[in-house]
Design brief:
By secondary structure, the chain is mainly α. It has five helices and three strands; from the N terminus they run H-H-E-H-H-E-E-H. The chain has a domain of about 80 residues: Winged helix-like DNA-binding domain superfamily/Winged helix DNA-binding domain (Arc Repressor Mutant, subunit A, Orthogonal Bundle). It has a three-stranded antiparallel β-sheet with strand order 1-3-2. The longest helix is centred in the N-terminal third of the chain and has 13 residues.
Amino acid sequence: MIDKRPIRPDRLRQVPSGFSWVDHRLIRHRRLEGCPHSAWALYLFLVTVGDAQGLSYYSDASLGRHLQMDPVQLAAARRQLQAADLIAYAKPLYQVLALLDPPGAPASPEAPRLGQAVAVGDILRRVLAGGCR
């Protein structure tokens, strides 16, 4: 077994209050597979700037400046993310959508793996339902 230790223990990531990490199902379920870097960049930017509901208002001009994309690249990246069912867009509002497990995909584990954050509400629901699993 590999002994994993932080390289920079002084810089361990923590979940910011009110927001969560990027969902690992993006990789596990290959949601961005085949998308160009521009789509990945736009998605990461929208996840980063969105509020707790995944909403953000950024103009095409502002997104283009931040991501160094021309209008054609930005529009293509947005269409790819919409086609992948990762974002919704109604100018000027973006919404990063909750990820749905694809049909036939193994169910997401009820309990998070070691090291994953758990919402307090989820813990309380488990306890009230009969204990932790």
